[in-house]
Write a sequence for this structure.
């Protein structure tokens, strides 16, 4: 596969940051999986591994003030929009120092200060929120753009069609980013989505693109141009990103051959891995040596290990927090 | 008697009814090959085929609406809603359409449909996958609501629900899917509106629903060791409600605690408590006490989640207070 040669070598720093961010996501997920397997993490989690180029390609085209809405598979979006490992692992383990003070967990993880409006455990649940965020930008004359992440499975939700209609009618600065990883839980996309996904947006007159979601530069280049246009009031836009999740639907989905062949998984991992592909591009273009990339990976691994250790030892919220944050401006709802 | 899991009990009930009546079909997300994320429906698509065990897109209002229409025209759908929390998405189809069609048509149309879903916290699934929302639908006239408390009830109530000509919502406790209970091999049904006295007692009545029946039984054990005799009653369906059985027990023991996993405010516990107050007031020695889930969204952190639901210790503690008459003076 070819990486789109859209950027010049003067963008070396950007490229290395994109690579690092993808590695950070992968490393975060490897650790999360370990925490699950060793029964140290409460509940289940949905891994983003394999889809890194989507979150990173898109979020690297955004400013801190731009907003995103995330999904049940949200660790990747969270990292890509600028979150730190320490607070993320704390959240995953239900600790007080987590981004949501342990109240959200994996399915609601988000670094709000970087414009992440939340991961959502309701499939399609954030489509209205993203569109509303774009409405705010327009109403208040801000130039932020909002990216709404959702899966191929979520295109079945009626809400999408209600909000795309309004976004198109009112030219809202929102980009609907459909992460098509080929599956919606234990079912292939072909079995749950009739017709074309991009045509759904086009029916509302929304410009829609389909892009290789394993090619971080292709994703980033496209997103940069759409974001720039959305800032000028030319939105909304729709992107379908073709990608793949390496793990099961969630960490507990281990025996999955009945719905997804092993060969297919192997093919994606061996031939279409976004980190391997981008690493190869960086070395070929002389932007980094293989050793430098390896050193970066080792560095990230060390960061993650330290953050995990920190989170494991961190304290749980006090019981008195249980009725805090039910309402704003009410310290304890049940006091 | 043989013992099977709640999951197997539901599976058997569906299989038996589908064999008996070819108009029964199942519809929902990942119900076929996957057999649902909880694996409750495993094997059904193999026996009944994809025509009758229908996998849908993630379009809850769509398939719920479709099921209402199918039910109005000669079939008996069993709609599978993966998590009870998703009931908000289908509220219009359930409450404005399914619940009211029979009434609005002057009795000419009916909606023989079962919505099976679940409830229950403490699975570390956070606020959007842990709610117990049965009170929302119990509020709507036209819907029946069943809350099985073991594999036995899950089977008997499911079979009755499928044969009922009204829309019925069944909430299973998702923490109980692997719990075993004695279930007869031979066919049986459990009629709606018939409470089950799980344990006889004379000092205090503990009325528990669904997941809270076990909590009440454990509380009764704790209390028995202290010389307090608690009666435990499981209403099994909250619509219709076996008021007679609840009142009889209240009059016998003169003290009642109602325990349910829905939020305490504006919920099932308040409804049952006030019916007892209205109809057994002069027999009571203490105010009827409500114990529901804490009125907060369900938190993810184990340190917080566990304190939001009633526990056997908590129920026993309240029972002691009622017995000591502390409550009367407080009231
Ligand atoms: C409204 C709603 N219905 C069903 C679910 C259960 N569920 C969680 S993830 C998922 C599949 C989502 O597929 P997709 O949108 O393609 O995202 P992916 O998991 O592939 O990233 C389903 C059905 C849910 N969380 N919310
Ligand atoms: Mg998908």
């Amino acid at each position: 596969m070819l990486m789109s040669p859209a950027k010049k070598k003067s963008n070396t720093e950007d490229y290395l940051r994109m690579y690092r961010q993808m590695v950070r996501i992968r490393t975060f997920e490897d650790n999360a999986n370990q925490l699950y397997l060793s029964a140290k993490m409460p509940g289940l989690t949905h891994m983003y591994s394999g889809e890194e180029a989507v979150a990173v390609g898109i979020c690297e085209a955004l400013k801190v003030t731009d907003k995103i809405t995330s999904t049940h598979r949200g660790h990747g979006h969270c990292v890509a929009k600028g979150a730190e490992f320490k607070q993320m692992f704390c959240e995953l383990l239900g600790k007080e120092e987590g981004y949501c003070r342990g109240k959200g967990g994996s399915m609601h993880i988000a670094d709000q200060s970087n414009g992440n409006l939340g991961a959502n455990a309701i499939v399609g649940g954030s489509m209205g929120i993203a569109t509303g965020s774009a409405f705010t930008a327009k109403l208040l004359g801000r130039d932020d753009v909002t990216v709404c992440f959702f899966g191929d499975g979520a295109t079945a939700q009626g809400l999408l069609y209600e909000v795309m209609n309004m976004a198109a009618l009112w030219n809202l600065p929102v980009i609907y980013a459909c992460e098509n990883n080929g599956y919606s839980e234990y079912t292939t996309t072909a079995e749950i989505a009739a017709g074309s996904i991009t045509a759904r947006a086009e029916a509302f007159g929304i410009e829609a693109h389909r892009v290789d979601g394993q090619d971080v530069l292709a994703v980033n280049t496209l997103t940069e141009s759409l974001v720039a246009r959305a800032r000028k009031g030319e939105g909304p836009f729709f992107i379908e990103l073709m990608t793949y999740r390496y793990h099961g639907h969630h960490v507990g989905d281990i025996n999955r051959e009945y719905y997804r062949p092993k060969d297919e998984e192997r093919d994606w991992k061996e031939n279409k891995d976004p980190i391997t592909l981008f690493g190869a591009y960086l070395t070929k273009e002389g932007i980094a040596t293989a050793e430098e990339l390896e050193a970066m990976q080792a560095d990230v691994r060390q960061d993650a290990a330290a953050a995990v250790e920190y989170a494991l030892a961190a304290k749980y919220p006090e019981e008195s927090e249980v009725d805090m944050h039910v309402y704003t401006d009410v310290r304890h709802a049940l006091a | 008697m043989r013992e099977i899991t709640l999951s197997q009990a539901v599976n058997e009930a569906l299989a038996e009814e589908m064999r008996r009546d070819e108009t029964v079909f199942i519809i929902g997300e990942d119900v076929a090959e996957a057999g649902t994320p909880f694996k409750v429906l495993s094997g059904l698509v193999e026996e009944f085929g994809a025509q009758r065990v229908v996998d849908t897109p993630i379009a809850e209002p769509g398939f719920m609406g479709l099921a209402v229409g199918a039910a109005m025209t000669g079939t008996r759908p069993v709609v599978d809603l993966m998590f009870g929390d998703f009931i908000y998405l289908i509220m219009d189809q359930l409450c404005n359409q399914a619940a009211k069609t029979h009434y609005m048509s002057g009795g000419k149309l009916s909606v023989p449909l079962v919505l099976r879903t679940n409830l229950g916290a403490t699975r570390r699934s956070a606020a959007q996958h842990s709610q117990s929302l049965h009170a929302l639908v119990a509020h709507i006239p036209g819907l029946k609501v069943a809350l099985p408390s073991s594999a036995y009830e899950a089977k008997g109530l499911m079979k009755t629900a499928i044969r009922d000509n009204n829309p019925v919502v069944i909430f299973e406790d998702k923490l109980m899917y692997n719990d075993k209970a004695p279930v007869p091999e031979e066919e049986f049904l459990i009629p709606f509106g018939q409470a089950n006295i799980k344990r006889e007692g004379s000092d205090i009545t503990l009325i528990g629903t669904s997941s809270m029946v076990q909590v009440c039984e454990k509380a009764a054990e704790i209390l028995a060791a202290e010389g307090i005799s608690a009666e435990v009653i499981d209403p099994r369906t909250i619509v219709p409600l076996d008021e007679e059985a609840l009142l009889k027990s209240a009059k016998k023991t003169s003290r009642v605690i109602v325990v349910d996993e829905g939020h305490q405010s504006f919920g099932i516990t308040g409804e049952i408590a006030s019916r007892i107050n209205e109809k057994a007031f002069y027999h009571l020695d203490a105010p009827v006490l409500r114990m529901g889930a804490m009125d907060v969204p369900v938190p993810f952190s184990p340190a917080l989640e566990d304190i939001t639901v009633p526990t056997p210790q908590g129920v026993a503690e309240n029972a002691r207070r009622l017995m000591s008459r502390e409550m009367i003076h407080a009231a």
Notes: The CA atoms of residues 7 and 177 of chain B lie 5 Å apart. The mean pLDDT of chain B is 97. The first helix of chain B runs from residue 6 to 20. The first strand of chain B starts at residue 3 and ends at 5.
